Every structure is written in C-alpha cells, then in structure tokens.
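Subject: DUF4383 domain-containing protein

B.,
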Amino acid sequence: MDLRDDLPLDHRLAQVYRYGAGLCGAALLVFGCLGLADGLAFFSTSGERVAGLSSNGLLSLVSIATAAVLITGAVIGGNTASTVNIVVGTLFVLSGFVNLTLLDSGANYLAFGMSNVIFSFVTGLVIATFGMYGRVSSRLPRDNPYWRARHPNAAAQPETGGRAAIGDSAF
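Prediction pasted inline below.
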C-alpha cells in the first residue's frame, strides 16, 4: 500500500490526522516540560515520578522532541500528519517492547518502569490509529479518496445499487 496518496485539501479526514497529532503532541510536551521543570537527573536509571510515570531528564527531552515532531505534523496537516502519526505510533509500540526488555537493567537509560511500557503501548496504538483512520481498511467506502486511488477503473463506474462494486472485498 502506498501511503503517499493525495487527499483533497478540504477532506474531512485531514482534520482527524491533524487533531490526533496535535493532542498527542501536546500531552507529550506537557510531560516532557514537567520532567525538565522538576530538575530530574539526566541519566538516572531509577527515575522519579512525573504525572504517574517514571522519568529522567533524557526521557523528558525525548518526549519534547517527539512532541515537536507530532505538532509539526499537525501544523502541516493532511497526509503528512497521517504519515507522521503512523510512524510515531509504530515507534512508540517498538519502544515499549525494547524498554520492556531493558527493565531492571543498567541499560535502562530512559528510566522506564512498567507503567511507562504500558503507556508506550497504549499511546502508540492511539497515535497510529489516528494516522490510519480512514486510510487503512479492506472496506473503505467508494467516496473515500484512498479507495478511489486504489481502484481507478471501478471509481469511474457508477455505483451499483446494493451489489458489491468491482474491487470490493467479499469480507
């Protein structure tokens, strides 16, 4: 599947991508700023509690950088926001798995705790869902621009009343 398909500038899905990136970016920005404001040790592997999660100075900076990427995607909007959401969401889930293996080790440089791992999984899935909404499905409606781009011949034909259109899945 090609994630570079163009949406019309005023398509309603662009708002979902933009708001999703903006809200998640704002939450990460607040978390990162709270960690830096507390003056946490930069490379502490034990971490201190910030907003219910374990954090250190490095995790605060990573959170702020990630928030900047998400907010930039939200400002740009459209397919860029969607792609940024998908990539960042996937990285969050992968980070959850990596940090799960590093718990209680000396290599836990981001001071992750189990609550951070769960947060990483949930947040990653939420961000990725915002990015994939209306874009990744086997049953997209015929008026969806992604469906039309994938089925150019069927999109040119008039819709059939009640019967499956050419290219529709039987599932």
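The helical segments are 13-37, 57-76, 78-102, 114-132, 145-150, 152-156.

T.
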